[in-house]
Design goal:
The structure is a homodimer of 160-residue chains. By secondary structure, chain A is of the alpha+beta class. Chain A is 28% helix and 39% strand. The interface between A and B is medium-sized, with 28 and 28 residues. Chains A, B: Belongs to the AHA1 family.
Protein backbone atom coordinates (compact mmCIF):
# COMPACT_ATOMS: atom_id res chain seq x y z
CA UNK A 1 0.00 0.00 0.00
CA UNK A 2 2.82 2.33 0.88
CA UNK A 3 5.24 3.43 -1.85
CA UNK A 4 7.69 4.48 0.83
CA UNK A 5 8.11 1.43 2.94
CA UNK A 6 9.45 1.11 6.42
CA UNK A 7 12.65 -0.91 6.74
CA UNK A 8 12.81 -3.15 9.79
CA UNK A 9 16.00 -4.98 10.70
CA UNK A 10 16.08 -7.60 13.45
CA UNK A 11 19.27 -9.59 12.92
CA UNK A 12 19.19 -13.14 14.29
CA UNK A 13 21.02 -13.70 17.54
CA UNK A 14 21.01 -10.01 18.56
CA UNK A 15 18.76 -8.05 20.96
CA UNK A 16 18.36 -5.18 18.47
CA UNK A 17 15.50 -3.95 16.30
CA UNK A 18 16.25 -1.11 13.88
CA UNK A 19 13.63 0.80 11.94
CA UNK A 20 14.21 3.30 9.14
CA UNK A 21 11.59 5.42 7.42
CA UNK A 22 11.76 8.49 5.19
CA UNK A 23 9.16 11.20 5.60
CA UNK A 24 8.29 14.08 3.31
CA UNK A 25 8.51 16.58 6.18
CA UNK A 26 10.97 18.73 8.04
CA UNK A 27 12.80 17.50 11.16
CA UNK A 28 10.78 20.09 13.11
CA UNK A 29 7.46 18.66 11.82
CA UNK A 30 8.53 15.10 12.61
CA UNK A 31 9.73 16.06 16.08
CA UNK A 32 6.38 17.73 16.78
CA UNK A 33 4.23 14.70 15.88
CA UNK A 34 6.58 12.47 17.87
CA UNK A 35 6.44 14.51 21.05
CA UNK A 36 3.06 16.27 21.26
CA UNK A 37 0.84 13.89 23.32
CA UNK A 38 -2.29 14.71 21.29
CA UNK A 39 -0.48 13.88 18.06
CA UNK A 40 1.29 10.82 19.47
CA UNK A 41 -2.16 9.41 20.29
CA UNK A 42 -3.01 9.60 16.57
CA UNK A 43 -0.25 7.34 15.25
CA UNK A 44 1.67 5.37 17.92
CA UNK A 45 0.38 1.83 17.49
CA UNK A 46 -1.66 -0.31 15.12
CA UNK A 47 -4.85 1.11 13.59
CA UNK A 48 -7.16 -1.45 15.18
CA UNK A 49 -6.30 -0.39 18.73
CA UNK A 50 -7.67 2.53 20.67
CA UNK A 51 -4.94 4.68 22.14
CA UNK A 52 -5.04 6.65 25.38
CA UNK A 53 -2.06 8.75 26.44
CA UNK A 54 -1.99 9.17 30.20
CA UNK A 55 1.30 11.05 30.45
CA UNK A 56 3.89 12.10 27.86
CA UNK A 57 6.41 14.45 29.40
CA UNK A 58 9.15 14.83 26.81
CA UNK A 59 12.19 16.12 28.74
CA UNK A 60 15.16 14.41 30.41
CA UNK A 61 13.67 12.56 33.38
CA UNK A 62 10.14 13.06 32.07
CA UNK A 63 7.86 10.04 32.20
CA UNK A 64 5.31 8.63 29.77
CA UNK A 65 2.55 6.06 29.95
CA UNK A 66 -0.04 5.07 27.35
CA UNK A 67 -2.63 2.35 26.96
CA UNK A 68 -3.72 0.40 23.88
CA UNK A 69 -7.20 -1.10 23.96
CA UNK A 70 -8.23 -3.79 21.50
CA UNK A 71 -11.77 -4.30 20.08
CA UNK A 72 -12.47 -6.88 22.83
CA UNK A 73 -11.62 -4.36 25.54
CA UNK A 74 -8.28 -5.88 26.55
CA UNK A 75 -5.77 -3.22 27.56
CA UNK A 76 -1.99 -3.11 27.12
CA UNK A 77 -0.07 -0.44 29.01
CA UNK A 78 3.40 0.87 28.18
CA UNK A 79 5.63 3.18 30.14
CA UNK A 80 9.10 4.67 30.33
CA UNK A 81 11.26 7.71 31.01
CA UNK A 82 13.14 10.04 28.70
CA UNK A 83 16.91 9.92 29.12
CA UNK A 84 17.73 12.74 26.71
CA UNK A 85 15.79 14.98 24.35
CA UNK A 86 17.59 16.93 21.63
CA UNK A 87 14.85 18.54 19.54
CA UNK A 88 14.90 17.58 15.84
CA UNK A 89 18.05 15.50 16.40
CA UNK A 90 17.86 12.63 18.90
CA UNK A 91 15.56 11.27 21.62
CA UNK A 92 16.60 8.43 23.95
CA UNK A 93 14.06 6.78 26.24
CA UNK A 94 13.27 3.59 28.12
CA UNK A 95 10.30 1.40 27.15
CA UNK A 96 8.47 -1.24 29.18
CA UNK A 97 5.33 -3.22 28.47
CA UNK A 98 3.69 -3.54 31.86
CA UNK A 99 2.74 -7.12 30.96
CA UNK A 100 6.43 -8.08 31.23
CA UNK A 101 7.65 -5.94 34.13
CA UNK A 102 11.41 -5.54 34.36
CA UNK A 103 11.96 -6.40 30.67
CA UNK A 104 12.93 -2.85 29.80
CA UNK A 105 14.18 -1.72 26.38
CA UNK A 106 16.25 1.30 25.50
CA UNK A 107 15.04 3.19 22.45
CA UNK A 108 16.92 5.77 20.44
CA UNK A 109 15.33 7.86 17.69
CA UNK A 110 17.60 9.91 15.41
CA UNK A 111 16.56 12.40 12.77
CA UNK A 112 18.59 12.84 9.61
CA UNK A 113 17.82 15.59 7.13
CA UNK A 114 17.65 14.30 3.55
CA UNK A 115 17.32 16.00 0.17
CA UNK A 116 13.57 15.47 0.20
CA UNK A 117 12.69 15.48 3.86
CA UNK A 118 13.76 13.64 6.95
CA UNK A 119 14.86 10.10 7.71
CA UNK A 120 13.81 8.64 11.04
CA UNK A 121 16.03 5.90 12.39
CA UNK A 122 15.09 4.11 15.59
CA UNK A 123 16.98 1.47 17.49
CA UNK A 124 15.40 -0.67 20.22
CA UNK A 125 17.74 -2.65 22.46
CA UNK A 126 16.14 -5.48 24.43
CA UNK A 127 17.55 -6.95 27.66
CA UNK A 128 18.00 -10.34 25.96
CA UNK A 129 17.90 -11.97 22.53
CA UNK A 130 14.94 -14.06 23.79
CA UNK A 131 12.95 -10.95 24.77
CA UNK A 132 13.65 -9.42 21.35
CA UNK A 133 12.58 -12.61 19.58
CA UNK A 134 9.39 -12.81 21.65
CA UNK A 135 8.50 -9.22 20.76
CA UNK A 136 9.12 -9.84 17.06
CA UNK A 137 7.01 -13.01 17.18
CA UNK A 138 4.17 -11.20 18.96
CA UNK A 139 3.55 -9.04 15.90
CA UNK A 140 5.83 -6.12 16.67
CA UNK A 141 6.66 -5.70 12.98
CA UNK A 142 3.02 -5.26 11.99
CA UNK A 143 2.57 -2.65 14.72
CA UNK A 144 5.65 -0.74 13.62
CA UNK A 145 4.62 -0.66 9.93
CA UNK A 146 1.13 0.53 10.84
CA UNK A 147 2.49 3.20 13.15
CA UNK A 148 4.99 4.48 10.56
CA UNK A 149 2.29 4.64 7.88
CA UNK A 150 -0.04 6.52 10.21
CA UNK A 151 2.79 8.90 11.10
CA UNK A 152 3.34 9.61 7.39
CA UNK A 153 -0.39 10.24 6.92
CA UNK A 154 -0.47 12.59 9.89
CA UNK A 155 2.49 14.51 8.52
CA UNK A 156 0.81 14.70 5.09
CA UNK A 157 -2.30 16.13 6.75
CA UNK A 158 -0.17 18.50 8.78
CA UNK A 159 1.15 20.02 5.56
CA UNK A 160 -2.26 20.57 3.98
CA UNK B 1 42.86 -10.30 47.59
CA UNK B 2 39.14 -10.87 47.92
CA UNK B 3 37.90 -14.22 49.16
CA UNK B 4 34.50 -13.41 47.72
CA UNK B 5 35.20 -12.50 44.15
CA UNK B 6 33.06 -10.61 41.74
CA UNK B 7 31.95 -12.58 38.70
CA UNK B 8 31.93 -10.62 35.45
CA UNK B 9 30.47 -12.10 32.30
CA UNK B 10 30.87 -10.41 28.92
CA UNK B 11 30.07 -13.03 26.32
CA UNK B 12 31.72 -12.46 22.93
CA UNK B 13 29.44 -11.11 20.21
CA UNK B 14 26.84 -9.73 22.63
CA UNK B 15 26.24 -6.21 23.98
CA UNK B 16 25.79 -7.46 27.55
CA UNK B 17 27.90 -7.27 30.69
CA UNK B 18 26.68 -9.19 33.73
CA UNK B 19 28.12 -8.84 37.22
CA UNK B 20 27.36 -11.00 40.25
CA UNK B 21 28.59 -10.46 43.79
CA UNK B 22 27.54 -11.83 47.16
CA UNK B 23 27.52 -9.54 50.18
CA UNK B 24 27.33 -10.36 53.85
CA UNK B 25 24.51 -7.86 54.38
CA UNK B 26 20.75 -7.56 54.19
CA UNK B 27 18.97 -6.39 51.03
CA UNK B 28 18.01 -3.24 52.98
CA UNK B 29 21.66 -2.47 53.82
CA UNK B 30 22.74 -3.06 50.22
CA UNK B 31 19.93 -0.89 48.87
CA UNK B 32 20.94 1.92 51.22
CA UNK B 33 24.60 2.03 50.15
CA UNK B 34 23.50 1.83 46.51
CA UNK B 35 21.08 4.74 46.68
CA UNK B 36 22.26 7.21 49.34
CA UNK B 37 24.37 9.79 47.42
CA UNK B 38 26.86 10.22 50.29
CA UNK B 39 27.43 6.45 50.41
CA UNK B 40 27.47 6.03 46.61
CA UNK B 41 30.36 8.52 46.53
CA UNK B 42 32.35 6.16 48.77
CA UNK B 43 32.36 3.12 46.49
CA UNK B 44 31.13 3.74 42.92
CA UNK B 45 34.31 3.63 40.86
CA UNK B 46 37.97 2.66 41.12
CA UNK B 47 39.91 3.63 44.26
CA UNK B 48 42.40 5.86 42.46
CA UNK B 49 39.72 8.29 41.26
CA UNK B 50 38.11 11.07 43.22
CA UNK B 51 34.32 10.93 43.10
CA UNK B 52 31.90 13.83 43.17
CA UNK B 53 28.15 13.19 43.10
CA UNK B 54 26.31 16.15 41.65
CA UNK B 55 22.83 14.66 41.66
CA UNK B 56 21.49 11.23 42.64
CA UNK B 57 17.73 11.30 42.75
CA UNK B 58 16.67 7.66 43.10
CA UNK B 59 13.01 7.54 41.98
CA UNK B 60 11.32 6.80 38.64
CA UNK B 61 12.24 9.75 36.44
CA UNK B 62 14.91 10.92 38.86
CA UNK B 63 18.26 11.94 37.37
CA UNK B 64 21.82 11.34 38.45
CA UNK B 65 25.19 12.76 37.49
CA UNK B 66 28.61 12.13 38.97
CA UNK B 67 32.19 12.97 38.09
CA UNK B 68 35.37 10.91 38.43
CA UNK B 69 38.64 12.82 38.64
CA UNK B 70 41.97 11.10 38.11
CA UNK B 71 45.27 12.03 39.82
CA UNK B 72 46.18 14.21 36.81
CA UNK B 73 42.98 16.22 37.17
CA UNK B 74 41.19 14.78 34.14
CA UNK B 75 37.45 14.47 34.73
CA UNK B 76 34.97 11.87 33.47
CA UNK B 77 31.27 12.59 33.91
CA UNK B 78 28.44 10.04 33.88
CA UNK B 79 24.71 10.60 33.86
CA UNK B 80 21.37 8.89 33.53
CA UNK B 81 17.77 8.59 34.70
CA UNK B 82 16.04 6.02 36.85
CA UNK B 83 13.36 4.05 35.01
CA UNK B 84 12.07 2.10 38.03
CA UNK B 85 13.03 1.78 41.67
CA UNK B 86 11.74 -1.15 43.72
CA UNK B 87 13.51 -0.88 47.10
CA UNK B 88 15.57 -3.95 48.03
CA UNK B 89 14.42 -5.73 44.87
CA UNK B 90 15.26 -4.09 41.53
CA UNK B 91 16.54 -0.79 40.13
CA UNK B 92 16.58 -0.03 36.39
CA UNK B 93 18.38 3.03 35.06
CA UNK B 94 20.08 4.49 32.00
CA UNK B 95 23.82 5.18 31.94
CA UNK B 96 25.82 7.46 29.69
CA UNK B 97 29.45 8.51 29.75
CA UNK B 98 29.40 12.10 28.60
CA UNK B 99 32.56 11.43 26.59
CA UNK B 100 30.49 9.27 24.21
CA UNK B 101 27.18 11.14 24.02
CA UNK B 102 24.28 9.12 22.69
CA UNK B 103 25.92 5.76 23.50
CA UNK B 104 23.47 5.03 26.30
CA UNK B 105 23.35 1.77 28.27
CA UNK B 106 20.48 0.30 30.21
CA UNK B 107 21.41 -1.08 33.61
CA UNK B 108 19.40 -3.39 35.79
CA UNK B 109 20.36 -4.28 39.38
CA UNK B 110 18.49 -7.09 41.11
CA UNK B 111 18.79 -8.17 44.76
CA UNK B 112 18.43 -11.80 45.72
CA UNK B 113 18.31 -12.85 49.38
CA UNK B 114 20.66 -15.75 50.10
CA UNK B 115 21.26 -17.95 53.15
CA UNK B 116 24.15 -15.77 54.24
CA UNK B 117 23.25 -12.36 52.90
CA UNK B 118 22.34 -10.85 49.57
CA UNK B 119 23.41 -11.47 45.99
CA UNK B 120 23.66 -8.46 43.71
CA UNK B 121 23.22 -9.15 40.02
CA UNK B 122 23.64 -6.35 37.52
CA UNK B 123 23.13 -6.38 33.78
CA UNK B 124 24.40 -3.64 31.47
CA UNK B 125 23.08 -3.57 27.92
CA UNK B 126 25.07 -1.51 25.44
CA UNK B 127 23.66 -0.05 22.19
CA UNK B 128 26.07 -2.19 20.15
CA UNK B 129 28.52 -5.05 20.52
CA UNK B 130 31.28 -2.63 19.50
CA UNK B 131 30.40 -0.17 22.29
CA UNK B 132 30.39 -3.03 24.80
CA UNK B 133 33.77 -4.27 23.57
CA UNK B 134 35.24 -0.76 23.75
CA UNK B 135 34.05 -0.37 27.35
CA UNK B 136 35.52 -3.74 28.34
CA UNK B 137 38.82 -2.86 26.66
CA UNK B 138 38.97 0.53 28.41
CA UNK B 139 39.33 -1.17 31.80
CA UNK B 140 35.69 -1.48 32.79
CA UNK B 141 36.39 -4.82 34.50
CA UNK B 142 39.04 -3.34 36.78
CA UNK B 143 36.67 -0.53 37.76
CA UNK B 144 33.85 -2.96 38.50
CA UNK B 145 36.00 -5.22 40.72
CA UNK B 146 37.31 -2.24 42.64
CA UNK B 147 33.82 -0.83 43.10
CA UNK B 148 32.39 -4.15 44.29
CA UNK B 149 35.26 -4.61 46.79
CA UNK B 150 34.75 -1.08 48.11
CA UNK B 151 31.02 -1.73 48.40
CA UNK B 152 31.73 -4.86 50.47
CA UNK B 153 34.11 -2.90 52.72
CA UNK B 154 31.55 -0.15 53.20
CA UNK B 155 28.92 -2.73 54.15
CA UNK B 156 31.35 -4.36 56.59
CA UNK B 157 31.95 -0.97 58.20
CA UNK B 158 28.22 -0.33 58.24
CA UNK B 159 27.72 -3.41 60.41
CA UNK B 160 30.40 -2.53 62.96
Amino acid sequence: MSTNPTTIKAEAGTPFVEVTRDFDATPAQLFRVQTDPDLVAQWLGPRNLEMRVEEYDVRPGGRYRYIHRDPDGAEYAFRGVFHSVEPETRVIQTFEWEGAPGEVCLERATYEKTDTGVRLHTQSVFPSVEARDAAVQSGMEYGIRDAMDRLAELLAGDRS
